[in-house]
């Protein structure tokens, strides 16, 4: 039998794939990574998390300057939008980070095989005209935008999340199809820059999967910011004439249709696993009904020597979940013990304010048993008050008998940063009392977590 070319071959260089490749190499395994893009980093670094945050941050600062928020603080400015420069700094951030991964590959002696991989056997893939055989193959091909049947994305008038990052001018009107994380983030960007934004969501509330109270409060905050919502509504057609799209909408529960026009339409109804072109059948693998590759607790597929992580396997499609799985799968391949606690994976929406959660929603927690809930409004937090950031709250859900923290939900300007404390506390099995009696620096937004923990037993100080 011929020798293997590599101990580990990773297919895909997104947050899961590149982390798995680097960790495997650090553990002394001869490693390669197959990537077809011109740059490493997958969706997240190239057209997802990173560029969207660059635009979110820039548009937030523009909004503060253009809409009188800075003036209230005694800072008077004349504001002009330079959209091309805003795009340039976004591209610069992407270039720096993707180049950073290329450097890390060289440093850790990970070979980058450029091209698309297709299985020819359980231990062999074809990349262009090169056949590569590996003892272990990790599928980390990520996900791509879910298309809306009957709606053609032209990346000019009708765009997906990638096209929404590249709009050359601010649309007068924008319709966002889908009230999930991506739609709300990118809708927020263009709203702040001057577009009139309407979000159409099939469900009766935005942010599916999030805590019910958080969903309602977030909706209220976004409405206050000027974003319009058509909830419980489905898009049955989109036609484009020139530079204008006409959308046909119908109530999800049935009823009369209506049409609305928009200069830009963002289709953001979710993502689907990337398995097309992998020739999984030649490796003896199949996908489940959702197109995902099934794995066991250790990230093994049903075929020995083939592993899978990230968006291509069941679970939340989040970069940090994929990263943790990347480390764990490499450690398992190396004979160590790699574990990911999938019950403690935080989720963040990078709007203003940010929305973050980890663990169970109040609804799910109540279904499972008796709980206690503590809440504290950001309005009563001294740092939030000083910064003129009154929106939001912290909510802690704890087991009524053991006091163990089951879930934490936050709406706050720095909610995405605050949630790390909650995730770490839950990873250590903390009780609400543990958090309540931990000294928090004053004045910080994080004091709201301490106060919410105190509220679990009914005794917050500043409320």
Explain what the structure shows.
The protein has 463 residues and is an alpha/beta fold. It folds into three domains: 6-145 and 272-333, FAD/NAD(P)-binding domain (3-Layer(bba) Sandwich); 158-269, FAD/NAD(P)-binding domain (3-Layer(bba) Sandwich), CATH 3.50.50.60; 353-456, FAD/NAD-linked reductase, C-terminal dimerisation domain (Enolase-like, domain 1). It is 32% helix and 25% strand. The protein is built from 14 helices and 22 strands. It has helices spanning 15-26, 42-47, 49-66, 69-72, 83-107, 161-164, 181-192, 212-224, 319-333, 362-368, 382-386, 415-427, 432-436, 447-456; strands at 6-11, 31-35, 111-114, 117-121, 124-127, 130-139, 143-145, 158-159, 173-177, 196-201, 228-231, 233-241, 244-251, 258-262, 264-267, 271-273, 306-308, 347-349, 354-359, 371-377, 393-399, 405-412. Helix 3 packs antiparallel against helix 5 (83-107). It is globular, with a radius of gyration of 23 Å. The N and C termini lie far apart (72 Å). 47% of the residues are buried.
Largest sheet: 7 strands, mixed
What's the structural domain tally? 3
Q: Going by CATH, what is the homologous superfamily of the largest domain? A: FAD/NAD(P)-binding domain
Helix content range = 25-40%
Q: Look at the structure and give the CATH class of the largest domain.
A: Alpha Beta
Q: Using the coordinates shown, work out and report the CATH topology of the largest domain.
A: FAD/NAD(P)-binding domain
E-strand count: 22
- The mean pLDDT is 97
Distance between the termini: 72 Å
What gross morphology would you assign?
globular
Rounded to an integer, what's the Rg over CA atoms? Answer: 23 Å
Strand portion: 25-35%
Q: List low-pLDDT spans.
A: none
The helix/strand class is alpha/beta
CATH architecture of the largest domain: 3-Layer(bba) Sandwich
The total count of helices amounts to 14
